[in-house]
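Page 37, continued from 36.
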């Protein structure tokens, strides 16, 4: 199965850490969203979309990138997010966007990550050191489970 991981990670590289772990676990191709030629995406059986969360939403550029992809029908995808709160609802919002474009979303992964946004900077940020080894292990378990089910 040919798998592509694509993401944007603008705050602290937190989502990029998850993206790299997932890609390495299953030997997938990995590209930042702006390195993907939209038409090459059709070469892949499964695509993972990852984003940090900013003001309650996934990264705007990543969402626009998804909008501009060539039409797909029932192509499989999964989504992952990192955020200060680690709220799975954030991930569902990204899954919703991906489904609206025609993908069949077969998995979602979320984790808490270092957040030093705005006033949190004053206290040195929250979730220091995350994603940590446990988070990266959880991401690996998630993707291996997903691939085994396919
Ligand atoms: C401008 C900004 C807004 C943010 N808004 C939220 C938010 O609404 N909820 C939340 O849980 N985390 C929020 N965060 C924290 C990020 O989601 C978190 O640090 C995430 O891991 C960043 O991913 P990245 O390092 O891959 O960009 C925000 C961070 C920034 C910089």
């Amino acid at each position: 199965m040919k798998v592509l991981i694509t993401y944007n990670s603008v705050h602290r590289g937190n989502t990029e850490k998850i993206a790299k772990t997932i890609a390495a676990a299953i030997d997938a191709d990995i590209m930042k969203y702006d390195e993907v030629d939209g038409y090459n995406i059709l070469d892949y059986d499964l695509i993972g979309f990852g984003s940090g969360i900013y003001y309650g939403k996934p990264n705007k550029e990543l969402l626009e990138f998804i909008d501009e992809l060539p039409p797909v029908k029932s192509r499989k995808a999964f989504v992952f997010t990192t955020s200060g709160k680690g709220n799975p609802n954030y991930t569902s919002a990204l899954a919703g966007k991906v489904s609206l474009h025609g993908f069949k979303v077969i998995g979602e992964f979320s984790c808490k990550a270092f957040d030093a946004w705005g006033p949190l900077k004053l206290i040195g940020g929250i979730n220091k050191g995350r994603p940590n080894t446990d988070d990266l292990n959880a991401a690996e378990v998630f993707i291996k489970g997903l691939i085994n089910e396919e």
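Residues 3-149 form a domain with the Rossmann fold fold (CATH 3.40.50.360). Flag for discussion at group meeting. The helical segments are 14-26, 60-68, 88-100, 133-149.
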